[in-house]
Amino acid sequence: MIDEILLLKSNLVIAKMDATENDVPSPYDVQGFPTIYFAPKNSKDNPRRYDGGREVDDFIKYLAKEATEPLQGYDRNGSKKKIMFSSQINIINELSYRQIQNELRKRQLNSTGKKNIIVKRLKVAYEKEIINQSSYVTKFHDLPNEIYREILDYLSSFNIIHSFYGLNYRLNEIIRNIPMKLNFNNLNKIEYKRVLKHIVPKIIDQTMAIDLGESSKIISCFSSSSFNESGFAQHCFFKSLQLQRTATVYTNLGFLYYRHDNIQLANNAFSKAQQTDPMYSLAWIGQALIAEKIDYNESIDLYRHCVDLSNHSQGLYGYGKAIAHLLIKPTNKSSDTYRYSINYLNGNQRAADALTKYIQRNPRDVNALQCLGIIHEFNQRFIQAANVYQL
Hints:
Radius of gyration: 39 Å
CATH topology of the domain at 208-390: Serine Threonine Protein Phosphatase 5, Tetratricopeptide repeat
Strand order of the largest sheet: 1-2
Largest sheet: 2 strands, antiparallel
Strand content: under 5%
Structural class: mainly alpha
Helix content: 55-70%
CATH class of the domain at 208-390: Mainly Alpha
Number of helices: 20
CATH superfamily of the domain at 208-390: Tetratricopeptide repeat domain
CATH architecture of the domain at 208-390: Alpha Horseshoe
């Protein structure tokens, strides 16, 4: 309640004293608690006992009436003054002589003289009221640091940097002391690249956790054609590994190496991911992609294991493509890989099922449709093969 009265920003001093611990000076007389006195500015020795209501509005009405100087924003009856806007200044010239005089009297200003003189006086009065009204509006930069931190707790690290970092020195210092958690999962590829390039470098040293999201986005965003900051990207992954050694982080690092044709380091990173979590399918997909570069047939067992672990699209498509590649070459029929994958494990049927699931998600993938058609032909499902080729 006292704080609300202090917001009036008039020359008021509000003081309190514990009468049980201190001697009450004359002429004050305390018989009960609380006892309230009002001492006018020019008559401190003659305080008046206040016996009115205890709501904020009761205090404001009393102070507005009794205070030596008017309370800003209130008339002498304790009613709020109307806020004047600059647009009203433009219509003053249209008021009648009598209307202008009345407006000046309300403001206790001299209302005598010719119309052009008192119009100027009224314009000045309006302008002063506008300034006074705006002077006791709390602005964003008036807030204490603690309130800033409360506000920033509701925002993501990306939004904090994008919206507030660089506005002024004070905000920058507050932001530098906030532990950051980076989560890329809900970003599209354009946002992903923008955040990596412009936001992460500013906060990487104060980052507590990093979730770089789907590996498909990572491969795209860290490719040499679309993102040239591979050294910085590697720094991000290493920073993340310092914070949490998970299969996801190792796998993401592996895809970065793979994209930049560093096969040995990529293989080491995927192996670390598999050791950390043998059930993490993306690590096996990474190994399968490496095997695919060396020998297509070597990737079949890895892709089959990926399909056994999960229905990840890359695994489904990779397995179907590897089986189609095996079937299309007649010389492969005499190989151990063919006999094991097709004759023993019935890989042609499993690959057809995998590609069917993949195409349900990606119906316009021409390469996948072609692979499925090849497998349907091998399975002597010629009608299904014809339908797929027509798509």
